[in-house]
């Protein structure tokens, strides 16, 4: 287990360095392509609820996608870290976001909370960030396990998860633990 953690940390560091070295032009182009791809994705089209995230630092930008989801009337929820938990709060505008956990833009936490209901999970799309991915849909996040814990008791929502990022974030193999939850799809640009 210790060797696996070390390997995850090493991969995380190496891939973050590659991602940070991308040019602004590469980053913008990939973000536009991701937005176009997801706007045409059947899960986006068929969902009335989007559990998204606000791109942070050198992550792929989700702003355009989230703004379009809001514009066409989808319910958009973004995560806020509260202690060891991640809670999704509804937003009506990206202007509502403030700097939160580790400088990541988060909702204030004073609006409607997303409540998982397996009967409506097929009308929900969850977008997941990540640092490292492989071709088997394994993912390494930032190391705190927020998404793994959030999804651990939501099997129907697990079937509606898409992790997004840049092609430079893909490696041959990601070491996995028993508590790691793979996104149902990984789309890299």
Explain this structure to me?
By secondary structure, the protein is an alpha/beta fold. The protein has a single domain (2-188), classed as NagB/RpiA/CoA transferase-like (Rossmann fold, 3-Layer(aba) Sandwich). Helices cover 31% and strands 21% of the residues. It contains six helices and ten strands; from the N terminus they run αααβαβββββββααββ. A six-stranded mixed beta sheet has the order 3-2-1-6-9-10. It has a two-stranded antiparallel sheet with strand order 4-5. Strands 7-8 form a two-stranded antiparallel ribbon. The longest helix is centred in the N-terminal third of the chain and has 19 residues, at 2-20. It is globular, with a radius of gyration of 16 Å. It starts with a helix and ends with a strand. The relative contact order is 0.19. The model has no long low-confidence stretch (mean pLDDT 96).
Second-tier CATH architecture: 3-Layer(aba) Sandwich
State the helical fraction.
25-40%
Shape: globular
Main structural class: alpha/beta
Order of helices and strands: HHHEHEEEEEEEHHEE
Descriptive tags:
6 helices, alpha/beta, six-stranded mixed beta sheet
Short description:
Helix content is 31%, strand content 21%. It is of the alpha/beta class and 189 residues long.
Topology:
Layout: H1 2-20, H2 24-39, H3 42-46, E1 49-51, H4 63-71, E2 75-82, E3 85-91, E4 98-99, E5 105-106, E6 124-128, E7 132-133, E8 139-140, H5 146-151, H6 155-158, E9 161-165, E10 185-188
Parallel strand pairs: 1-2, 1-6, 6-9, 9-10
Antiparallel strand pairs: 2-3, 4-5, 7-8
């Amino acid at each position: 287990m210790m060797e696996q953690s070390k390997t995850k940390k090493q991969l995380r560091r190496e891939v973050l360095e590659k991602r940070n070295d991308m040019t602004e032009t590469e980053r913008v182009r990939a973000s536009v392509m991701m937005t176009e791809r997801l706007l045409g994705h059947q899960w986006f089209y068929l969902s009335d609820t989007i559990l998204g995230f606000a791109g942070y630092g050198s992550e792929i930008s989700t702003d355009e996608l989230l703004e379009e989801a809001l514009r066409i009337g989808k319910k958009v929820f973004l995560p806020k870290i509260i202690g060891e938990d991640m809670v999704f709060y509804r937003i009506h505008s990206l202007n509502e976001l403030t700097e939160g956990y580790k400088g990541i833009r988060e909702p204030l936490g004073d609006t409607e909370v997303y409540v998982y209901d397996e009967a409506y999970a097929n009308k929900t799309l969850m977008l997941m960030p990540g640092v490292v991915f492989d071709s088997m849909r394994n993912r390494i996040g930032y190391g705190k396990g927020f998404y793994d814990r959030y999804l651990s008791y939501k099997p129907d929502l697990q079937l509606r998860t898409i992790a997004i990022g840049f092609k430079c974030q893909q490696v041959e193999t990601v070491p996995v633990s028993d508590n790691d939850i793979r996104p149902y799809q990984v789309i890299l640009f």
